Known about the structure:
Blueprint: E1 29-31, H1 36-46, E2 52-56, E3 61-63, H2 64-72, E4 82-89, E5 96-101, H3 108-116, H4 120-123, E6 128-132, E7 137-141, E8 144-148, H5 154-168, H6 179-187, E9 191-193, H7 200-216, H8 232-246, E10 255-256, E11 261-263, E12 290-291, E13 302-303, H9 311-327
Parallel strand pairs: 1-9, 5-6, 6-8, 10-12
Antiparallel strand pairs: 2-4, 3-11, 4-5, 7-8, 7-13
Amino acid sequence: MFSSVIKAAAVASFLFGAPALADNLGKPTLFKDGLSPHVNDEFMQYMPSTPSTNGAWSWGWIPQRCADEANRADPPLSLYDFEVFNVQYEDCEEAWIFCRHTQAQLTQSQLIDYFGRLPVHERQSVSYVIGVPGGGSAYEIGGLVVFQGATASVSVFQHEVGHAVDAYNNADGTSSSTKEFLDAIDGDTCVPDDYANSSNVEDYTQVGVLLMYNTVVPGGLDKIGADYSCLSKQLAVVAARQQAAMELGGTCTWRQTYGEVISMGPASGNNKRAIGPKPIMNLVPGHPLAIEKDINRGGAVTHYGEVESNKTADALAAQKQKEWNAVAKHRAVRRSI
């Protein structure tokens, strides 16, 4: 079974402040046991992972933003213990950058698989995907998503990526802080679960999880086993602002810009290990897909507890990734993105 989000406002600690944050909504909940037990089996069935290939960076180089999150940990994580790799999904001409600590509970194939199950028009709001060791928590900060510990769950990935979509999907700003959504909360008689009650921001992303179910599962929310009409106004606002990005298929239409690449430290150049040329970032201002966004936002850490993944599905995903890479082995692994 998948564990649900720990249901207390206190579990969300903030690295950056969220705009127009309405705490403690005080609403009845649709599901007292969280959303994960009600959605994840169907997500795994109806949200297949996007075919991809991946290639490792030369050891010794790391994106500045991955380094920033490693240094933010308590205690800080050694940059030397990270593996950095590009993932080229078939639905976007530019790769995503993944940074994984060697002791992270999430494997490389799990990070690629679960992120790749989300629609490309949601994924495009994310720049970097990071996996680090931890007790089962995650956060999104400025379009970067960090998964700490065993968090292999489509609903977890949807929730965290959903924060980036909330912030960046619409030109008029953060959707969860609009008057329309705040009025919808006031006009409805429930929210999805106890964690959604912690703030309008968390409520928006949890409503987004339900909307994803309604979008991809045949029969939609009528099959979920609860009367969701109590949050119909919230669903309508999220649908108006985000549902187009939830449709499976299509190709990326924009991407977050990437930042600097730095050395992991002095040891990366002391001849103990070979170090290749510094990777070149293609997604910079001037690239036809690149759009600069405000990254000084986000950072609420959600504690999920240890999530038990579907081991059969994980093994199948790892095998598929090997096959996709084998098909592409005649091409040189891209060293620049």
